[in-house]
Every structure is written in C-alpha cells, then in structure tokens.
Amino acid sequence: MDTTKKIHFFSYKSAFLFFIFILAFNLIFNPVFQLIGMTKEFALFITNSLGLSIGLTTIIVFIEGKFKNKKQSFTLFFSLLVFCTITCYIVVFNS
C-alpha cells in the first residue's frame, strides 16, 4: 500500500522554501506598506494575500513541476489568490 504519497503534496524542501519566502515577504513588504500610510491590519492582509498565492504558485509550478501548461499555472494562481484573499480577510479582520 502506497497511501502516504497521496498525502504529501510537495516535499519538505519546498515547504521550507515556502515558509522562508512568506517570512521574507512579510518582513520586506509590511513595513513598506505601513510607511506609505496603510494600517497594520490592511498591510498584513495585502502582504499575506499576495505572498501566499505567489509563493504557493511558485512552489507548485516551478519547484515541484506539477503543471506544465501556462493556462493551468494562471488558473492556479488566480484561484489561490481568491482563496488566500478570503482566508486572510477572515483571519485578519474578524479576529
């Protein structure tokens, strides 16, 4: 039985790179957005919505090589953008 392969969608290296990317994205862009006058919550919302969708798309498409077609990659990016935006809105503004 090879059931554990279906659970792991991407490797540990990809997960590590993803979390490093999100941390760096937050450390770089949150202060920049706050400097231009955004509130802390709105800066977190924008940074994490974009960062999560860009990071996951990059990991899945380029590092893991799951999609070979540009149309699939764009569909993945925009669906992740919608999902991450809704999720980040719920986490940041409804807490």
How does this model look, in words?
By secondary structure, the protein is an all-alpha fold. It has a domain of 59 residues. Helices cover 80% and strands 0% of the residues. The chain is built from four helices and no strands. Helix 2 runs antiparallel to helix 3 and helix 3 packs antiparallel against helix 4. The longest helix is centred in the N-terminal third of the chain and has 24 residues. The chain is globular, with a radius of gyration of 15 Å. The N and C termini lie far apart (42 Å). The mean pLDDT is 87. Keywords: Membrane, Transmembrane, Transmembrane helix.
Helix-strand layout with pairing:
Blueprint (H helix, E strand, L loop, with lengths): L3 H4 L4 H24 L4 H24 L6 H24 L2
Main sheet characteristics: none
**Taking all residues together, what is the mean pLDDT?**
87
In the predicted model, the low-confidence regions spanning at least 5 consecutive residues are: none
What portion of residues belong to β-strands?
under 5%
CA(first)-CA(last) distance: 42 Å
Radius of gyration: 15 Å
Counting helices, strands and paired strands, the structural category is mainly alpha
Keywords: Membrane, Transmembrane, Transmembrane helix
Transmembrane segments: 15-36, 42-62, 74-92
Brief account:
The protein is mostly helical and 95 residues long.
